[in-house]
Design brief:
364 residues, OB fold (Dihydrolipoamide Acetyltransferase, E2P), 4 domains, five-stranded mixed beta barrel, alpha+beta, rod-shaped
Length: 364
C-alpha cells in the first residue's frame, strides 16, 4: 500500500473533516494504478482502494486524475477505505434523477430494449422502464385484440429513436425508475387542444384499426373514429374502409380531455336525406330483408335508406315469429307508416299491405 505523508496543515484540516461513512460520495486523486486495483488519495480523509470489479467498463484512467468514488467500507483492517467508482456513478445518477423528477424536467432518451409491457430505458447510468400505457398516441402500438407478438414488434421499432420523456416515479430505495412520454407532451397537447373546436376539419394518420373503429394521430393528439362515424352506410368491418397509414381528413365531433372524437362520414353529405325524399307516408314500397330480430325486421329500401317493420306490424297474429315469416335477402312489399327525418327512421307495415291486397282481391 503506498504511503501518503500528511503536512501539518493537512493534519489540522483532518481534525475538522467529517470521517468517512459507508455510502459517502467523495472526490480523490489516483495515486497508483495496479493490475487489479487503483489507489486513491482522499486528502484529509485518508486513502482508499478501488478493486477492478468496482471500476466500471471502458474507463480510461491515469495517475494524478481526479475521480469520484463511493465509500463501501470506511476502514478495512489494513486501515484504508474500500471504494467504488461504479457505485459512485450510480449514486450521482440517483441524485440527478431525483433532481430531474423534482423539477419535472423533460429529457431525451433512446430505449435500449423492449418487452411486451413497454420500453427499457437508461438515464444517468440507472436503468428504468417506460410502460406501454405511458407512450404518446403517435407511438402507442395499436393492434387488433391482444396480439402480443405484433405489440412487441411495434415496440422494438421504437428502440432506435429518441423520445422526449418525464420521470413519472423514482425511488432509489426500491430501485424504481418509471418514465412517461405522455407527461412530457401533456402541456403541448393541452395547448394544441385549446385551439381545436367541435366542427373543425383536421388532417390525421390512421394508427390502428380495431373492431369498434379506428385510431387517428392528429398532430400528436389521439383521435377515435367510432364505427358508427366511419360511413353513412352500415359498417360491419372498419378494415374495409380504412387501414393503418392512411392519411385522412375528419371532422371533430367532440373534445374529451386528451382525446378527440372524429367523424369520417360527416365529411360528405348524408345520402339518406336525399334518398328518403322518394318515399311518402302511405306509399307501398318494395324492400329487401337485411336483418331479422325478435322485435322486428330491417328492410333495405334504397342504397342508403333502411327501415324497420316492427313485429306488431307483421301480422294480426300476436304470436308471429319474424324468423319464420321472413328470409334474409328476400324482397317483399310494405306500407310506409311514418318517416322521421330528424332521427333518420322509417316505420313500415307488412300486415296493412296484406290487408289492402286482400280487400282488392275480394272486390274482384
Amino acid at each position: 500500500m503506498p504511503k501518503t505523508a500528511l503536512t501539518m496543515d493537512e493534519l489540522l484540516e483532518a481534525s475538522s473533516v467529517a470521517a468517512l461513512k459507508a455510502g459517502d460520495v467523495a472526490e480523490g486523486t489516483i495515486s497508483s494504478i495496479k493490475k487489479n486495483e487503483i489507489w486513491v488519495d482522499l486528502g484529509a480523509r485518508g486513502v482508499g482502494v478501488v478493486l477492478r470489479r468496482e471500476i466500471g467498463h471502458g474507463q480510461q484512467l491515469e495517475e494524478g486524475q481526479t475521480i469520484t468514488v463511493s465509500v463501501i467500507d470506511p476502514e478495512l483492517e489494513e486501515g484504508h477505505a474500500l471504494l467504488s467508482m461504479r457505485r459512485a456513478v450510480k449514486d450521482r445518477g440517483w441524485e440527478e434523477l431525483e433532481r430531474i423528477f423534482t423539477e419535472q424536467e423533460i429529457v431525451e432518451v433512446i430505449p435500449y430494449d423492449a418487452n411486451r409491457g413497454g420500453l427499457l430505458v437508461e438515464l444517468e447510468g440507472i436503468r428504468g422502464f417506460l410502460p406501454v400505457s405511458q407512450l404518446a398516441a403517435g407511438h402507442y402500438p395499436r393492434v387488433n385484440g391482444a396480439d402480443k407478438d405484433e405489440i412487441l414488434q411495434k415496440l422494438n421499432a421504437l428502440t432506435t429513436i429518441s423520445l422526449r420523456v418525464r420521470i413519472l416515479d423514482v425511488s432509489r430505495k426500491e430501485n424504481k425508475l418509471i418514465f412517461s412520454e405522455k407527461e412530457a407532451i401533456k402541456d403541448d397537447m393541452a395547448a394544441r387542444l385549446a385551439t381545436l373546436n367541435v366542427g373543425d376539419t383536421v388532417d390525421g394518420v390512421v394508427t390502428g384499426v380495431i373492431d369498434f373503429g379506428a385510431f387517428v394521430n392528429v398532430d400528436g393528439i389521439e383521435g377515435l373514429i367510432h364505427i358508427s362515424e366511419i360511413s353513412w352506410e352500415r359498417v360491419d368491418n372498419p378494415r374495409n374502409y380504412v387501414k393503418v397509414g392512411d392519411k385522412i381528413k375528419a371532422k371533430i365531433i367532440s373534445v374529451d380531455k386528451d382525446r378527440l372524437s372524429l367523424s369520417l362520414k360527416q365529411m360528405s353529405e348524408d345520402p339518406w336525406l336525399s334518398e328518403v325524399k322518394q318515399f311518402k307516408r302511405g306509399d307501398v314500397v318494395e324492400g329487401k330483408i337485411t336483418r331479422i330480430t325478435p322485435f322486428g325486421a330491417f328492410v333495405q329500401l334504397s342504397s342508403s335508406v333502411e327501415a324497420l317493420v316492427h313485429v306488431s306490424e307483421m301480422s294480426d297474429d300476436e304470436s308471429v315469429d319474424p324468423e319464420k315469416l321472413f328470409v334474409l335477402n328476400e324482397k317483399k312489399q310494405f306500407k310506409v307508416l311514418e318517416i322521421d327525418t330528424e332521427n333518420r327512421k322509417i316505420a313500415l307495415s307488412l300486415k296493412q299491405t296484406n290487408t289492402k291486397k286482400a280487400k282488392t282481391d275480394k272486390k274482384k
